Amino acid sequence: MVIKEKVAGPSRIWDVSRVIVPLCAGCQHGVATTLIGLVIEELGIEGRAIAVHGAGCNSLPMSGFDIDRIIGPHGRGPDLATGLKRVHPDAIVFTIQGDGDLLAIGADALMGALARGEKLTIIMYNNSNYSSTGGQMAPTTLMGQVTPTCPTGRGPDAGYPVHGAEMLAGFKTVVYSARGAVNTPANYQATKRYLKTAFQKQIDNIGLSYVEIISACPVQWHMTPLQSLKWVEKIIAEYPLGEFKNVDRIE
Amino acid sequence: MAERVFTYGNEMVGWGAVNAGCIYFFGYPITPQNEVTAWFARELPKRGGVFVQSQSELGSINLVQGAAAAGARVMTSTSSPGWSLMQEGISFLALGELPTVIHVAQRGGPGTGTMRHAQMDYLSATRGGGHGGYKTIVLAPASAQEIHDLVQLAFYLADKYRNPVVVLSDGILGQMREPVKVEPLSFPPLPEKDWAIAGKAKHKDGKFREGLGGRGMVYPAEYIGALEGLDKKYRQMQDAEVRYEEYQVEDAELLLVAFGYVARVCQEVVNIARSEGLKIGLIRPITLWPFPYEVIKEKAANGARFLVVEDNLGQMIDDVRLGVEGRAETHFLGIFARHLTSDLGIIFPDRVLEETKRLLEKGR
Amino acid sequence: MAKGEIVIDENRCKGCSYCVHFCNRNCIVMPGDIFTPKGYSLPVFINTDDCTGCGICGWMCPDQAIEVYRYVEEKSR
């Protein structure tokens, strides 16, 4: 007897229809956060998961979750997460941060968590700009990319793109560091695996895990959604995908 | 069971905290309160508590925000430059309606200032140093015993109002050693923190809990409602939480107004003056916010004159002037009354007494 | 013969066209003159016989606007 089995659709843990301030058409934060919701459900950690959002577009999905959550000041996610984790060591505390939120203004909090070896899961949505404020230059902005704060294109006088996943892989306290994208079904499935592995590191109480997800930002890249999907390939050329570190204990 | 302890005012921050049931402390080294972080690092693990040295004061206040959101009694401690770094965090604690206690051992400012005492953060503490016009109760101890007592009161008030409370001390009080009776003080009962974040499975109704900091950005429609709630709270604090001490004020022609270490100095001034037959008294605000405007107004109406003595360029005098409502003379003696021009200078009784006598003479 | 089917929720869809792009069997098109209640361009599920229920359109939709069903043999107890 043939039945209909549902294989895709709104997710229970994170549902877009609960998001109050909508994301832009084609913004892939919706895809990335859906993956987080699916992974939380599959790992059975819904009852102990706590989401900590930063400032920027990464905070807008917060209202879509059906788990405990909090928004903190710009960049301070790892600090709030640490405070929560120290009071509830059995909770699975993860941050959702933007590229500027983590690598620019968040450098202080990030270094604190890395230096102290906090057992958190840090998730960073990389769209190579400060999207919610109008697309300004971020540490992850590509060379030559035009933004309101590098109107002639990013040049060496504004540094070079910062590679979060590779940098974190160099820290002893980081036991997992990966970068994924969601611009193809294959990358979608790989990113889901990275997220699952990252959360498992915290479940197993091993160390800090990090997943960077490249997310299309059509509006601030001044492209149509389909064009922005193509542009993600350019970003991947600068920021390779894959796992940069995956260990089972801190050595 | 009370213990008698003879130690630094700074260590009383720790004794007060653990007697209030606080076992979480996050802080960063800064003079002149390093005894505080050392105390917590040493004593919390013995009590099953958690001490974390943060990477900066930005870290301290945000680690505190996380633990406070989890419903724990948690505090941090710093001095003036670190206090500056904490302002954004305190603003977020205010909107998030999170209870916490922030101890500040004031030192000279602005900038790096000095490593030693001063009273230069009064305005910043009482006006809400960060953005958004929030209010925090500010408690000003004037002895090691009072540090111990007011830290415990601070935790009670923080939980009662779901708001950060500041304990504003200074480098002299922190470094002074005095005998203190250490014990848990009793306070009225408080409701359970059903709002705290812990992971959905830990809530009785199984529903998620959320930090309130998203009102305005993630939930734009809730903004004015959030402000209405905060406004109501601040008015309740102003109505119910004013604390001050009056010392020999009954027939005083001149009233000294001072807080913190300077109030100890002024108390001595009153003793000396009275022994010489001069009619002066001291009003010592214990809550710098909400400020005891009423008692100032009442004394002004009865014809008293005021000499505000504070170790800064003139900060609390603004509040005294608001209190007198133009009805009384308000004089100021500040940081230039110190006995030395270096950072070692202290406002001593003799200089205050000299100014007191000059004003009393002028008045005749 | 279809092995699956999809349902597009017009109240969620923002007309980004990712589903059109990713369906490798051309089951979804964007006519351009059909709109969601919010005014976005609404894609349409056609060539329904070719749908395999692979789920990719649903995965790639940023708005969770597509429910994907696959026809499977019910497992006997």
**Would you tell me which CATH topology of chain A applies?**
Rossmann fold
Extract low-pLDDT stretches of chain C.
Answer: none
**Number of helical runs of chain A?**
8
- Structural class estimated from helices and strands of chain C: alpha+beta
How would a textbook summarize the main sheet of chain A? 7 strands, mixed
Q: What distance lies between the first and last C-alpha atoms of chain A, to the nearest angstrom? A: 54 Å
Q: What portion of residues of chain A is helical?
A: 25-40%
Low-confidence stretches of chain A: none
Q: Provide the gyration radius of chain C in Å.
A: 13 Å
Which structural class matches the secondary elements of chain A?
A: alpha/beta
- Per the CATH scheme, the topology name of chain C is Alpha-Beta Plaits
What's the assembly state of these chains? heterotrimer
* Biggest interface: A-B, 43 and 42 residues
Shape of chain C: globular
The counted number of beta strands of chain C is: 4
Average per-residue pLDDT of chain C, rounded, comes to: 94
Care to describe what's here?
The complex is a heterotrimer of chains A (251), B (364) and C (77). Chain A is an alpha/beta fold. Chain A has a single domain, classed as Rossmann fold. Chain A is built from eight helices and eight strands. Chain A has a seven-stranded mixed β-sheet, sandwiched between helices. In chain A, helix 1 packs across helix 6. Chain B has 364 residues and is an alpha/beta fold. Chain B folds into two domains: 180 residues, Thiamin diphosphate (ThDP)-binding fold, Pyr/PP domains (Rossmann fold, 3-Layer(aba) Sandwich); 119 residues, Rossmann fold (3-Layer(aba) Sandwich), CATH 3.40.50. Chain B contains twelve helices and 14 strands. A two-stranded antiparallel ribbon of chain C has the order 1-4. The mean pLDDT of chain C is 94. Chain C is of the alpha+beta class and 77 residues long. The radius of gyration of chain C is 13 Å and the shape is globular. Chain C has one domain: 2-Layer Sandwich (Alpha-Beta Plaits), CATH 3.30.70. Chain C is built from two helices and four strands; from the N terminus they run E-H-E-E-H-E. The relative contact order of chain C is 0.36. Chains in contact: A-B, A-C.
